[in-house]
């Protein structure tokens, strides 16, 4: 109706389906987290949440799409640590990760695993590093583009072993996993939300987890620290965002629905099977996520600058 006040609209929100943009291809770890959260949030919001995969440029195409969307609460972004690393990696980013979004809340921190095609000739991480250093010109490393978590972990890995490998970018580590299982690519560093099933099914080989402690659902995997690569440590945090300017009552409703989803037994059980868990309730808030993005931009800036990695 013409002239309906913004507050009234915000109070009625949501009155139609919501789009949740995942800035990577379907079937990957970001998509997995998004669909679990969206399914639960749609129940408490009473409107369908449609996940839309907008891949490319390490997640920055999808993030740009949401940064420019109407700030009405009907277009959301579920993104991960790439929201912070892209601020340094991309020299001409068409949006400001720290200021062009209305943060809703943190979602989950996901461990990463160093994995290889199942016939890769190394029985442990030490042997893998030796083989990779000797065969650097032949070994290929998959990732989801500059800005992806798999790219960041791959960068830490190559820095730690002092060896540059041929990297193969995909629109997400869902498609990358297909090639790893098929043996078309050799290595990848990817999140347990994507690798757990393939590891347990014997379709790929796993060498280590990138977290300070072992992952209960993958008890045989040593930490990179214990396996000799202490510098390769990264956990992939995920956040939910709306465009800057989304009315506060709408953001508040979304944050409450996110917190409810993170207490949902189905979400918690599935996250547990995939090696992760929901963040504590007090972290699923606009202020915590907003502050955290800024802190993570500052944290990764020197690491990325030292690695001399960037994209135009
Ligand atoms: C990443 O590497 O950033 C993610 O694994 C990409 C994805 O979710 O497909």
Automatic annotation (TrEMBL):
Q: Which domain of life is it from?
A: Bacteria
Q: SUPFAM superfamilies, alphabetically?
A: Periplasmic binding protein-like II
Q: Which ranges of the sequence are coiled-coil?
A: none
Q: Which InterPro entries match?
A: BUG, Bug_dom1
**Alphabetically ordered keywords of this record:** Signal
Supply the Pfam families for this chain: TctC
What protein family is recorded?
A: Belongs to the UPF0065 (bug) family.
Return the protein name: Tripartite tricarboxylate transporter substrate binding protein BugD
What high-level taxonomic lineage is stated for the organism?
Bacteria, Pseudomonadati, Pseudomonadota, Alphaproteobacteria, Rhodospirillales
């Amino acid at each position: 109706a013409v002239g309906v006040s913004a507050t009234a609209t915000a109070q009625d929100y949501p009155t139609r389906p919501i789009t949740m943009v995942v800035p990577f291809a379907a079937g990957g770890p970001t998509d997995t987290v998004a669909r679990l959260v969206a399914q639960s949030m749609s129940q408490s919001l009473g409107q369908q949440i449609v996940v839309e995969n907008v891949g490319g440029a390490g997640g920055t195409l999808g993030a740009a799409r949401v940064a420019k969307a109407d700030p009405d609460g009907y277009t959301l972004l579920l993104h991960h640590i790439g929201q912070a690393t892209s601020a340094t990696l991309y020299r001409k980013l068409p949006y400001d990760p720290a200021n062009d979004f209305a943060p809703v809340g943190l979602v989950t921190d996901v461990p990463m695993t160093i994995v290889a095609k199942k016939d890769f000739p190394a029985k442990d991480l030490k042997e893998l590093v030796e083989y990779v250093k000797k065969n650097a010109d032949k070994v290929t490393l998959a990732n989801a583009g500059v800005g992806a978590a798999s790219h960041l972990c791959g960068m830490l890995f190559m820095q730690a072993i002092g060896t540059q490998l041929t990297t193969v970018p995909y629109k997400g580590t869902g498609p990358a996993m297909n090639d790893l299982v098929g043996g078309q690519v050799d290595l990848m560093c990817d999140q347990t939300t994507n690798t757990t099933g393939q590891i347990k099914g014997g379709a790929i080989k796993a060498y280590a987890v990138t977290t300070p402690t072992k992952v209960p659902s993958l008890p045989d995997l040593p930490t990179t620290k214990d396996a000799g690569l202490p510098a390769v440590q990264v956990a992939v945090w995920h956040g939910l965002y709306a465009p800057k300017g989304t009315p506060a009552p709408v953001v508040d409703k979304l944050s409450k629905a996110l917190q409810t989803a993170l207490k949902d037994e189905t979400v918690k059980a599935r996250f547990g099977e995939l090696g992760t868990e929901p963040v504590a309730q007090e972290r699923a808030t606009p202020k915590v996520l907003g502050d955290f993005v800024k802190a993570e931009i500052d944290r990764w800036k020197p690491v990325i600058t030292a690695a001399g990695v960037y994209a135009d």
